[in-house]
Amino acid sequence: MIHQELIQPGSIHVPFQEVRPKSYQVYMETFGCQMNEYDSELIRAMLKTQGFGFTDQSDEADVILLNTCAIRENAHNRVYGHLGKLKYHKQERGVVIGVLGCMAQNLKKELLDSQPFIDVLVGPDGYRQLPKLLTTAITTRAKGLSVDLSEYETYEHIIPERVSGVNAWIAVMRGCDNFCTFCVVPYTRGRERSRDPQGILLEAQGLAEQGFKQITLLGQNVNSFRFDHWDFAKLVTAVADIPGIERVRFMSPHPKDFPPALLDTVAQHPNVCSQIHLPLQSGSDRVLEAMGRGYTRKEYVQLVEAIRRRGDIPLTTDIICGFCGETDTEYSATSQLMEEVGYHAAYIFKYSERKNTIAARKFPDDVPEAIKTERVAQLIDRQKTISLKNNRRMIGQTVDVLVEGDAKKSSQQWVGHTESHVTVVWDKLCRPSQPGELLSVFIEDASASTLFGRPN
Ligand code: 5AD
Ligand code: SF4
Asked: Which of 255, 292, 260 is nearest to 277 (CA)?
């Protein structure tokens, strides 16, 4: 059940703002993972249905929303930095400020107390309350809080308002029951629950009809997707069978219970992308055990071998450096396994203690900051070498690329991704194209992160 609590205005002085007979304009920024991007799309849809408008100019907004992440301390710090800047909008124009998502859920009233200019605080299961809480905050200045977690909320029947026209995220399950000892997600996003596959398929069909070419199925641990007699492999197959969907991706599966049927789906369906994100976290058995990951190094390697037997399926991963008690030898085991697997990409993080997690309660965060920093830098360096080697192998080959839009560095270039999710960039002058097109690109050069080519 969603609980909603209204709090009387605090002591901060807010200039009087006349309530105008127009639709209130919202400016929203999103931090963190793809699930947050997706949630922001849900929030846009819910607010627009209730008459709110959206602006990309914070100066013009009546409401400023930050959809936040809590996964590491630096995610918190980025939001605090932003909140500092927002005080100006509050003082000058009386804007209503809302903090949403995992950080709101994690810190709850503590955040309202420490940042009194926040008007509305809503966690990942409370977004249906947002239109009402914002309207109340705008019209009466009462603060609002909705931070109860739900066992059922999947935002069924709400069609997200998507920003991109090529890839669409669909969250197929929410929450996580794994309780890896370092991770705050089970506390900020609550218990696992899956969406009804019929709703997912209808949504995917609608997306195909609107011209979306790629669907990315999201879940904190997609292996846990269950609904009646449906499992995740069956769902992926059904989405892949929808006419018009060129590519289906998913993230993330957990190595501890990777379903063999999912591997069959990847190997047998040409439009299910041959690429798997398989978070390793550590290559040391002692550390994996302390992290509560539920697999050993050997089991992880066996899974990698099983994947490799099914074909050329590039792997990407997440790694944490400097987890509680991590010795040089344990760190080296991770580094060595990274080399052995030869990931296409690795996201490497410094361990960041999160309040109330099992690790925070059980183990001291005792690896010195300087050592964490050094280990992360070394692994990033090592991964760059591996990625460069993998990417240089592509020179001289022709790859299918889904055109996504302007390249980050130049609007004179297009950017897209290969099936294995490697970024490809090429000059627009080479050939007229448009986002959503599937193009054959001949690869001429490569860096650790990008392939450079020309369309055939
Ligand atoms: N510290 C550092 N990295 C973390 N991750 C999750 N929690 C933490 C933490 N407390 C990383 C894991 C996970 C990814 C999404 O974020 O590697 O797979
Ligand atoms: Fe966090 Fe582990 Fe759940 Fe992933 S599987 S969200 S790392 S608790």
From this structure: 255
> Would the CB of 343 count as within 6 Å of ligand 1?
no
Ligand 1 contact, 354 CB (< 6 A): yes
Say whether domain 4-146 belongs to CATH 3.40.50.12160: yes
What is the secondary structure of 374-413 as a DSSP string?
HHHHHHHHHHHHHHHHHHHTTTT-EEEEEEEEE-SS-TTE
d(CA 129, CA 146): 7
pLDDT (tens, 9 = 90+) of the chain, 456 residues, equals 333 433 333 333 444 444 444 689 999 999 999 999 999 999 999 999 999 999 999 999 999 999 999 999 999 999 999 988 888 888 888 899 999 999 999 999 889 888 999 999 999 999 999 999 999 999 999 999 999 999 999 999 999 999 888 999 999 999 999 999 999 999 999 999 999 999 999 999 999 999 999 999 999 999 999 999 999 999 999 999 999 999 999 999 999 999 999 999 999 999 999 999 999 999 999 999 999 999 999 999 999 999 999 999 999 999 999 999 999 999 999 999 999 999 999 999 999 999 999 999 999 999 999 999 999 999 999 999 999 999 999 999 999 999 999 999 999 999 999 999 999 999 999 888 999 999 999 999 999 999 999 998
Ligand nearest to the Cα of 349, by number: 1
From the candidate CATH numbers 3.10.580.10, 1.50.40.10, 3.30.750.210, 3.40.50.300, the one assigned to the domain spanning 162-273: 3.30.750.210
Does residue 126 contact residue 189 with C-beta atoms inside 8 Å? Answer: no
In whole angstroms, how far apart are CA 213 and each of 18, 191, 210, 435, 441? 45, 31, 9, 9, 18
At 395, the amino acid letter reads: I
Task: Provide the CATH topology of domain 398-455.
Answer: OB fold (Dihydrolipoamide Acetyltransferase, E2P) (2.40.50)
- Does residue 279 have its Cβ closer than 6 Å to ligand 1? yes
Q: How many A from CA of 145 to the centre of ligand 1?
A: 27
The CATH 3.30.750.210 domain(s) of the chain lie at: 162-273
- Say which ligand is closest to the CA of 188: 2
